[in-house]
Amino acid sequence: MTSPAMPMIRVNLERAKLLVKELERSTYTQLSAYCLEVLHEIGCNDTELPDNLQTREQQLNFIAGFASYAFGEVENV
Fold it and tell me: Superkingdom of this entry's organism (predicted)?
């Protein structure tokens, strides 16, 4: 039996993948600003990125993880 939630999860995962693909073309400054925005949304009041979000790869992984969670599916995109 197919779960009625599966189509929604697939849509959410696709949205997360599209967001990350879009952000892969962003500059380091744009990614950093977006990461700070996400951190502020989840309650962090720092004005600088933490040590584990200093590289472009770390930032993209953070955004991908947050997007997939926010869109309803925690998965490595």
Answer: Bacteria
